[in-house]
């Protein structure tokens, strides 16, 4: 009988120390295969495997595309690649970003659910926003186990809190207990007969993460059109509903949770406001420059240009106030 020995872990802000704690506490005879995604930039040096290897009794590696899945290994997603699972092997993909990131957590979780069903244990650790919530929900739908770091124990509690909100988790535990818990869970047999049906369109979403063009599946006919555009490519976003979750994906393949989409739109608004400030202040400089050159030739016109410059300065000041209010609102939201 197969074991529940496929472990997928997702984290973001605060993730290095969290992963060090989890990996360091794995038993030396750990027989599961663990796959880790932490949000990192595309220009990262990819040092996480070596950092974790220093504290782990289990081999930690950065896998290559097509590498076989072995027990007693920890596989770490490399920079700028989604880490995905197929039966018996690893797939590295430069598919569309999800929730602003590549690697992202949800694609790993979904691919694990599709490839291994109830043999999967999904783990969500410290991080901001809610990447991993949709993927953990999918793991539960196929009969897998959901483990979440206790938000009160997390350096950044948003990801664990959202996972608990959207998914019926099996274990909510402090960080120091997760490693031993995973060692225990991966020794358990799992019954494959009579497992739950795969969520609708799961296979399509995994294929999109593997770089199969979303337009080939005509996703516009699969999901409801929304009123929003993709922050990355300006394509129309389609709305997906799963349980209590609402997500968005464009026909190019970029995907967002509601929280991540809101954050992306808010950032776009701020960028637009700063662009407006720049253009207004350039106008102020030009008006003053013109007034200076006209002063000796036509004092009345020079005065008029200076008056326009003063009005533009007032406009710039008001837009700056809006930016400051928005930034303050964001800071207050982060502390809640």
Care to describe what's here?
The protein is of the alpha/beta class and 336 residues long. The chain has 3 domains: 6-185, Methylesterase CheB, C-terminal domain (Rossmann fold, 3-Layer(aba) Sandwich), CATH 3.40.50; 213-253, no CATH class; 260-334. Helix content is 41%, strand content 19%. The protein is built from 9 helices and 13 strands. It has helices spanning 15-24, 48-53, 105-116, 133-141, 158-166, 175-185, 202-209, 258-294, 299-334, and strands spanning 6-11, 33-38, 60-61, 73-76, 82-86, 89-93, 120-124, 145-149, 171-173, 224-229, 236-242, 245-250, 255-257. A 7-stranded parallel sheet has the order 3-4-2-1-7-8-9, with helices on both faces. A 4-stranded antiparallel sheet has the order 10-11-12-13. Strands 5-6 form a two-stranded antiparallel ribbon. Strand 10 (224-229) and strand 11 (236-242) form a beta hairpin. Helix 1 (15-24) packs across helix 6 (175-185), helix 3 runs parallel beside helix 4 (133-141) and helix 3 crosses helix 7. The radius of gyration is 25 Å and the shape is elongated. The protein starts with 5 loop residues before the first strand and ends with a helix. Mean pLDDT is 91; it is low at 331-336.
Summarize this structure briefly.
By secondary structure, the chain is an alpha/beta fold.
Radius of gyration over C-alpha positions, nearest whole angstrom: 25 Å
Q: What would CATH call the homologous superfamily of the largest domain?
A: Methylesterase CheB, C-terminal domain
CATH T-level topology of the largest domain: Rossmann fold
| Molecular shape | elongated
**Which CATH class of the largest domain applies here?**
Alpha Beta
**Would you identify the regions where 5 or more consecutive residues have pLDDT less than 50?**
331-336
Kindly name the structural category: alpha/beta
The biggest sheet amounts to: 7 strands, parallel
Domain count: 3
CATH architecture of the largest domain: 3-Layer(aba) Sandwich
Fraction of helical residues: 40-55%
Return the average pLDDT rounded to an integer.
91
Q: What order do the helices and strands follow?
A: EHEHEEEEHEHEHEHHEEEEHH
Number of strands: 13
- Percent strand: 15-25%
- Counting DSSP H or I runs of 4 or more residues, the number of helices is 9
Major β-sheet strand ordering: 3-4-2-1-7-8-9
How far the N terminus sits from the C terminus, by CA atoms, comes to 46 Å
């Amino acid at each position: 009988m197969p074991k529940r020995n496929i472990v997928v872990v997702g984290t973001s802000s605060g993730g290095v120390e969290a992963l060090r704690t989890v990996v360091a506490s794995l038993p030396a005879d750990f027989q599961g295969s663990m796959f880790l995604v932490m949000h990192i930039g595309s220009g990262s040096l990819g040092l996480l495997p070596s950092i974790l290897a220093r504290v782990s009794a289990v081999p930690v590696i950065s896998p290559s595309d097509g590498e076989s899945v072995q027990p007693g290994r920890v596989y770490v997603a490399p920079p700028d690649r989604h880490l995905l699972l197929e039966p018996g092997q690893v797939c590295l993909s430069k598919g569309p970003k999800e929730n602003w990131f590549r690697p992202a957590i949800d694609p790993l979780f979904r691919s694990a659910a599709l490839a291994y069903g109830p043999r999967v244990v999904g783990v969500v650790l410290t991080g901001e926003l809610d990447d991993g919530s949709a993927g953990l929900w999918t793991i539960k739908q196929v009969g897998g186990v959901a483990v979440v770091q206790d938000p009160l124990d997390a350096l950044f509690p948003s990801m664990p809190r959202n996972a608990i909100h959207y998914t019926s988790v099996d274990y909510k535990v402090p960080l120091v207990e997760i490693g031993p818990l995973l060692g225990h869970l991966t020794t358990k047999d799992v019954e494959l007969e009579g497992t739950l049906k795969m969520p609708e369109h799961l296979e399509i979403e995994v294929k999109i993460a593997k770089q199969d063009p979303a337009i080939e599946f005509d996703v516009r006919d699969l999901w409801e059109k929304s009123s929003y555009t993709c922050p990355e490519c300006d394509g129309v976003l389609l709305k997906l509903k799963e349980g209590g979750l609402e997500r968005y994906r464009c026909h190019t393949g970029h995907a967002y949770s509601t929280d991540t989409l809101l954050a992306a739109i808010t950032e776009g608004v701020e960028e637009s406001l700063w662009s407006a400030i720049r253009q207004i202040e350039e106008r102020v400089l030009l008006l003053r420059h013109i007034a200076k050159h006209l002063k000796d030739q036509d004092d009345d016109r020079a005065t008029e240009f200076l008056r326009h410059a003063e009005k533009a300065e007032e406009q710039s000041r008001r837009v700056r106030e809006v930016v400051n209010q928005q930034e303050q609102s964001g800071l207050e939201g982060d502390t809640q």
